[in-house]
């Protein structure tokens, strides 16, 4: 397929409805995963901060 014919494909025909649903679920799961990672990093920073405060207060 050359570049001109790719431009003429309507967006709706690139993925089937089932593929769109699967992609949406994948993106939701990926978003959830990254939210969990951000939360874990925040918790780790809080723990390290508490530990450093404890060491500095001695």
Key structural traits:
58 residues; mainly alpha; 2 helices; 79% helix
Describe the structure.
The protein is built from 2 helices and no strands. The chain has 58 residues and is mainly alpha-helical. The radius of gyration is 23 Å and the shape is rod-shaped. The termini are far apart.
Short description:
Helices cover 79% and strands 0% of the residues.
Overall shape: it is: rod-shaped
Nearest-integer average pLDDT: 87
Largest sheet: none
Low-confidence stretches: none
Number of helices: 2
Radius of gyration: 23 Å
Number of strands: 0
The helix/strand order is: HH
Note the beta-strand portion: under 5%
What is the share of helical residues? Answer: over 70%
- Termini gap: 70 Å
């Amino acid at each position: 397929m050359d570049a001109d014919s790719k431009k003429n494909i309507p967006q709706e025909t690139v993925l089937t409805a089932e593929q769109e649903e699967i992609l949406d679920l994948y993106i939701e799961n990926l978003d959830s995963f990254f939210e969990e990672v951000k939360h874990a990093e925040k918790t780790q920073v809080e723990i390290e901060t508490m530990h450093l405060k404890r060491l500095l207060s001695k």
